[in-house]
Design a protein that fits this description.
The complex is a heterodimer of chains A (207) and B (109). Chain A has helices at residues 2-18, 23-36, 50-71, 81-106, 112-117, 119-138, 141-159, 167-194, 199-204, and one strand spanning 74-76. Chain A has 207 residues and is mostly helical. β1 of chain A pairs antiparallel with β1 of chain B.
Chain lengths: 207, 109
């Protein structure tokens, strides 16, 4: 069993080192803030497409430029998409059932606005699940802090009353983005300072 | 250690331990490669804290044994050495873990 524990530690260290650049948090934060821009102007809906671009070519290009020359390239074993979708579906189902019971007891289950008002709770639970999964994979406490923040802010923004029913959801994205962007940025700057480029050193020393 | 030197039946798996893997540096390399899909030379060097020459020598042995696949490629004109475990390597690593566990369990009794 000792060997299994060591392998788990190696897996966690690999995950931590792979994400030590803070770029994942930074990109996630930018995505969240982008989604919240609908709060400012309804014409910025097209910005919702930006996350696809940010998580795809932009993140890959930034890692090629800044991360891989410093710590090397690693491709982690990817999660199975079917399992990820199944977990999200299960979480959604549980949240819907709990909300339906709560609305039956304390409100009107047929009130569509009430469902919209409580969307931040669903977002909070899904993101908390994702961050907890990161926490388990990395052994880093900060992901559990993000998970807790996600849950609390989702719940609080669902309780509060706003003029427009979707305001809570958009504020939720803004609140999450405002946590993740500074965190990612500071982590990224620290990473650049403490990790010099080593790829040239490796190649120059080639026999 | 020759197989005939071992009398104790419980220690029989010790004679079957894969000597290629049973070297600390190579075991560490295989352990790191077993938890990722692929990694490059620099990443593995950072993780294992082995020197370039040392890592290179151990990787050559693992490649010769058929446990590790080494691919050379260019990314934007910069050479990159990509490493991953072969199916044979994965099996050998699992078998090694099983054998060692068996040996250590029998010693503990």
């Amino acid at each position: 069993m000792e060997q299994e524990i060591d392998l788990k530690e190696i897996e966690q260290k690999t995950f931590r080192d792979c994400h030590q650049d803070g770029l994942l948090e930074l990109v996630m934060g930018i995505c969240m803030v982008t989604m919240s821009t609908r709060l400012i102007s309804p014409f910025l809906v097209f910005m919702l497409a930006l996350p696809v671009l940010l998580f795809g070519p932009v993140l890959v290009a930034m890692r090629k430029r800044f991360t891989y020359p410093r710590i090397g390239y690693v491709k982690l074993i990817p999660d199975k998409p079917k399992e990820v979708l199944a977990v999200i579906f299960l979480i959604t189902l549980i949240v819907i059932v709990v909300m339906a019971v709560a609305f039956l007891l304390f409100g009107d289950v047929r009130d569509f606005n009430l469902w919209l008002k409580w969307i931040p709770v669903w977002g909070g639970v899904v993101l908390a699940g994702m961050f907890s999964s990161f926490g388990s994979k990395s052994g880093c406490a900060r992901y559990y802090v993000f998970a807790l923040w996600s849950l609390i802010s989702g719940f609080v923004l669902s309780i509060l009353n706003f003029e427009a029913v979707e305001t809570g959801t958009l504020l939720y994205f803004l609140v999450m983005g405002c946590l993740l962007i500074p965190w990612g940025l500071v982590t990224f700057i620290r990473f650049l300072r403490k990790s010099p480029k080593r790829i040239q050193e490796i190649n120059n020393g080639k026999d | 250690m020759a197989k005939t030197e071992i009398d104790n039946e419980n220690l029989q798996p010790l004679a079957e331990i894969d000597r290629i893997i049973h070297e600390p540096a190579r075991l560490l390399i295989l352990a790191y490669l077993s938890v990722v899909e692929s990694a490059d030379f620099l990443f593995l060097m950072n993780q294992t804290h082995l020197t370039r020459g040392n890592l290179s020598a151990h990787l050559s042995k693992l490649e010769t044994a058929g446990y590790v696949e080494i691919k050379k490629e260019f990314v934007e004109k910069i050479p990159r050495t990509l490493l991953c475990l072969t199916e044979e390597g994965k099996k050998a690593f699992q078998e090694y873990r099983r054998s060692m566990k068996q040996v250590l369990d029998s010693l503990a009794e």
